[in-house]
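Quick review question:
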């Protein structure tokens, strides 16, 4: 079969709704993905009729429509699809009828908006920080917020051997501020605050791009058609994680 009639295995797994491309590459590196019973490397292409398995489970290209969900994650729930190792995982909590996976994550002690889908391309476009997609948070800290803190947080903070991108920080009251980020480093807001000797007491995500948190804690809803169309329009010029 010609190469233009094949598909990279990470894209195949993503479009099947099994996992994101990033997770697919991790599974490939771990030797858990086989094609026709043989171990593969990243970049391997899948042809029509090939048998793709992950840990012995057959993966087939889904013909179903994609699912797009918004969920108000409670504190204590972990954004992982690993249902065997983490009992408080988001998948078991939602118990959704179809296989979906979270777009990015909120740490266990944070709450608020997280999106879930089986559309792997959207996952990769939203997660890629160079696409500058906004995420808005409401944060309370243990000390009074000074204008110096606001200014220095906005300009970029040294964390994880890099400098965070400039962001928008707005003081709400003495101990609360809003922050809009366009990147998602591990525990980024908590680390930024820690750099200035502030401790985060509560952290809630209010918005991802055009999707706004509008349901009670612990509840989920499907994205509205207008939200999906606007989301896809915003992502139309975004880069994917990989080809």
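Suggested answer, residue by residue:
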């Amino acid at each position: 079969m010609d190469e233009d009639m094949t598909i990279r295995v990470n894209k195949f797994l993503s479009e099947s709704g099994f996992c994101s491309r990033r997770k697919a590459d991790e599974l490939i590196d771990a030797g858990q993905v086989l094609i026709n019973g043989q171990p593969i490397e990243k970049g391997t292409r899948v042809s029509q009729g090939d048998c793709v398995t992950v840990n012995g489970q057959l993966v087939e290209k889904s013909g179903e429509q994609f699912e797009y969900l918004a969920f108000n994650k409670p504190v204590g729930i972990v954004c992982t699809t690993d249902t065997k190792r983490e009992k408080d995982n988001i998948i078991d909590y939602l118990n959704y009828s179809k296989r979906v996976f979270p777009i990015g994550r909120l740490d266990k002690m944070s709450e608020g908006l997280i999106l879930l889908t089986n559309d792997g391309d959207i996952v990769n476009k939203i997660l890629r920080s160079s696409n500058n997609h906004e995420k808005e948070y409401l944060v309370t800290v243990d000390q009074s917020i000074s204008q110096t803190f606001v200014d220095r947080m906005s300009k970029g903070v040294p964390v994880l051997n890099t400098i965070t991108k400039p962001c928008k920080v707005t003081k709400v009251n003495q101990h609360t501020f809003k922050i809009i980020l366009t990147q998602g480093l591990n525990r980024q807001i908590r680390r930024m605050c820690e750099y200035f000797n502030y401790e985060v007491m509560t952290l809630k995500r209010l918005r991802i791009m055009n999707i706004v948190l509008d349901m009670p804690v612990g509840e989920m809803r499907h994205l509205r058609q207008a939200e999906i169309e606007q989301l896809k329009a915003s992502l139309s010029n975004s880069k994917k994680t990989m080809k």
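Why it works: The mean pLDDT is 89. The domain at 68-129+210-235 is CATH 3.30.70.580 (Alpha-Beta Plaits).
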